[in-house]
Specification:
Largest sheet: 10 strands, mixed
Oligomer: single chain
Structural class: alpha/beta
Distance between the termini: 46 Å
CATH architecture: 3-Layer(aba) Sandwich
Shape: globular
Number of helices: 9
CATH topology: Rossmann fold
CATH class: Alpha Beta
């Protein structure tokens, strides 16, 4: 099954070489007024060198034919936008339905360190999410590839940008322009992006309806300062063989189970934890999935941890598994993109 999916994706990529991408020319502001964008990758545990090398070759191909490469799906278009935040023009990529419907929901996808919004879109099959469910996917770009997710340090590689403000400014600009549903804004992030999503949730929970993280637990310092204005549905995916963000935690980081317990307590889930082994459709990928679901939650909350047994620091269900092999196995037992949507999309944030 896994081999077939990868081959299918490869055929799709080859077919794209003969066509140009359909890219919406509209942006919400002018080009950047200051130098904003990815610098040369710095040393670090999650620079995703193999995945970036693969996409480097694809970028070169698609730049020749005039497109900014985001793997398309039926009924979708994508465009590059900019919003002003902190005196800078901050960049994002948006994927939207070809036919704009007012009141559509928004999924904010936050990339890991040094992976561009476009590459994040392809890695998690964001266009497919838009094609199937009509959601807008917004992929903001961190300054120099590094989200300012840690409130204790206050800085990333270039200073102390207010990334929470930038992300919400982007949401407001797009939602205001196209009449989208600001009560159905879901934030999902991977690695550094997952920690950033948690910071958005803790500092501005009134603005989001649900949170999903992959390969991110919870910083102790953020847990101590986290204030939620409402019960928040949370979905986590975490590999037991993750060597970047260990499943069992480390100093300053909670374990995956402790993080799930934290969100359950904040959601006032009064029961225990149900443990369910999920079906294993691909017995040859070296992984399995166990769902740890908090019970006794009120009707406006849900807390789930998908334990990827044998999984690494990777996005479950991604068909680019070969290019993150250095970070451990990528499970094909579950599609994290589809699953996070299925769990979070029924929820809305409270009316203001």
């Amino acid at each position: 099954m896994r081999f077939g999916r990868i081959c299918q994706r490869g055929l799709a990529l080859l077919s794209l070489a003969a066509v140009t991408l359909s890219v919406n020319a509209g942006v919400l502001s002018s080009r950047p007024v200051a130098a904003v964008g990815a610098s040369a990758a710095t040393a670090g545990p999650d620079n995703f060198a193999g995945l970036n090398l693969f996409f480097d070759n694809l970028d070169a191909l698609f730049q020749r034919i005039g497109g900014s490469f985001v793997l398309p799906a039926a009924g979708t278009v994508n465009y590059e936008g900019y919003v002003e935040s902190g005196g800078l023009a901050r960049r994002f990529r948006a994927i939207r339905p070809s036919v704009i419907q007012p009141g559509a929901p928004i999924v904010v996808m936050l990339h890991p360190r040094n992976l561009s919004p476009e590459r994040m879109a392809n890695y998690v099959a964001a266009s497919t999410l838009t094609s199937r469910f009509g959601a807008w996917v917004l992929l903001p770009e961190a300054l120099f590839g590094d989200w300012n997710d840690d409130p204790s340090s206050g800085i990333n590689s270039i200073g102390s940008p207010n990334d929470v403000a930038f992300i919400l400014r982007m949401v407001d600009a797009v939602a205001g322009t196209y009449g989208l549903d600001t009560r159905r804004v879901y934030v999902a992030g991977y690695s550094n992006g997952g920690f950033m999503g948690e910071r958005v949730a803790c500092e501005r929970s009134s603005r989001i309806a649900g949170l999903a993280t992959v390969g991110a637990s919870l910083r102790d310092v953020l847990g101590r300062s986290c204030t939620l204005s409402h019960r928040l549905p949370v979905v986590q995916f975490h590999g037991t063989s993750d060597l970047i963000v260990p499943y069992n935690g480390e100093p300053t980081l909670k374990s995956a189970i402790a993080a799930s317990g934290f969100w359950a307590q904040r959601a006032t889930c009064g029961g225990g934890t149900s443990v369910t082994a999920l079906p294993n459709p691909d017995p040859f990928d070296g992984t399995s999935v166990t769902l740890l679901r908090q019970t006794g939650c009120p009707s406006n909350a849900e807390v789930r941890l998908y334990r990827i047994n044998g999984g690494g620091h990777t996005w479950p269900g991604s068909t680019y598994a070969l290019y993150t092999a250095g970070y451990g196995r990528t499970s094909q037992e579950i599609d994290a993109t589809l699953e996070l949507w299925n769990v979070l999309s029924p929820y809305s944030s409270p009316a203001p």
